């Protein structure tokens, strides 16, 4: 059977999956409830956020394929998956449009000072004394030059921005004007009006932006994190924004999700919080299931699946 643990999948998309496969389909968003007969599960469709560990996999002896409906697989016990010969696939290429739109919406929101107009409307205040800025000519630094970063860069270039990129090798990538790497990270940060984080979480990238990096940034620089929460030292960011060392930040990812109600991030003026939705538009399930639908015949015919994860490398 196929088990879906994606907690918010609309019924019409569940029905579409039922049409694709030739096996029973069961939806059980909470594996702890043990509604599903785990010993009969051959395919698991999941966000990968549940506790998919060795103990759970031991209770799923028939499991052959885990399809993760996101890019990251860091919450899955990859060693256990590898030991059991389970195929693991994720979804890629579906986030380019929504995440790049998210970044540009923040850039325009900040540059055009939309928050001030919303505030003035509530006060019934028709104030034309302070002029707004323009995006044209500003510099965006994108840390991560993969497909999402490239799409963000394309949209930024459409607004006549200068776009800098960062990757581990420093190799040139279109459409970035310049590409930097670890030994020139500080130089890149000093130039940026907007800093966009798209890096994965690794030992090297944890606290990628901390007190030192924030001190290097312009006073009117704005930080946008759509990569992973641990890329930023939250305490250092809060202090930097409160002190006016940088203009502000938009955070869509966090060390702990959901972001706890008692997190100090909620209360900081000029830090915008969004609930990890930058890549998840109304077309998310359609695009994810398209990938699953393309892979299912390959699975049935014993062929290699698209977007297959190497459990050893983690990607």
UniProtKB/TrEMBL annotation:
Protein name: D-2-hydroxyacid dehydrogenase
UniProt signal peptide: none
Alphabetical list of InterPro entries matching this protein: D-isomer_DH_CS, D-isomer_DH_NAD-bd, NAD(P)-bd_dom_sf
Highest taxon listed in the record's lineage: Bacteria
Key words, A-Z: NAD, Oxidoreductase
Gene3D superfamilies tied to this protein: NAD(P)-binding Rossmann-like Domain
Keyword Oxidoreductase: yes
Alphabetical list of Pfam families matching this protein: 2-Hacid_dh_C
Organism of origin: Siminovitchia sediminis
Keyword rRNA processing in record: no
């Amino acid at each position: 059977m196929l088990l879906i643990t994606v907690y918010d999948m609309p019924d019409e998309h569940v029905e579409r999956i039922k049409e694709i496969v030739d096996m029973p389909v069961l939806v059980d968003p909470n594996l702890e409830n043990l509604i599903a007969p785990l010993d009969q599960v051959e395919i698991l469709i999941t966000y990968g956020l549940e506790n998919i560990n060795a103990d759970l996999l031991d209770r799923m002896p028939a499991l052959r394929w885990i399809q993760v409906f996101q890019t990251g697989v860091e919450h899955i016990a990859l060693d256990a998956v590898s030991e059991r010969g389970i195929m693991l696939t994720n979804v890629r290429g579906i986030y380019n449009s929504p995440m790049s739109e998210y970044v540009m919406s923040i850039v325009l929101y900040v540059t055009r000072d939309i928050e001030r107009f919303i505030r003035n409307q509530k006060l019934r205040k028709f104030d034309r004394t302070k002029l707004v800025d323009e995006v044209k000519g500003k510099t965006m630094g994108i840390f991560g030059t993969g497909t999402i970063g490239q799409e963000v860069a394309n949209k930024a270039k459409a607004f006549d921005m200068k776009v800098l990129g960062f990757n581990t090798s420093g190799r040139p990538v279109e459409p970035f004007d310049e590409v930097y790497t670890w030994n020139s990270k500080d130089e890149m940060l000093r130039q940026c009006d907007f800093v966009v984080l798209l890096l994965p979480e690794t030992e090297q990238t944890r606290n990628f932006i901390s007190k030192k990096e924030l001190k290097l940034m312009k006073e009117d620089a704005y930080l946008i994190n759509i990569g992973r929460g641990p890329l930023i030292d939250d305490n250092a960011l809060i202090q930097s924004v409160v002190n006016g060392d940088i203009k502000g930040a938009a955070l869509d990812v966090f060390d702990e999700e959901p972001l706890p109600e008692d997190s100090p991030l909620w209360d900081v003026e000029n830090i915008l919080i969004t609930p990890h939705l930058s890549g998840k538009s109304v077309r998310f399930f359609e695009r994810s299931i398209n990938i699953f639908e393309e892979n299912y015949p390959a699975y049935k015919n014993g062929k290699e699946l698209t977007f297959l994860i190497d459990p050893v490398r983690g990607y």
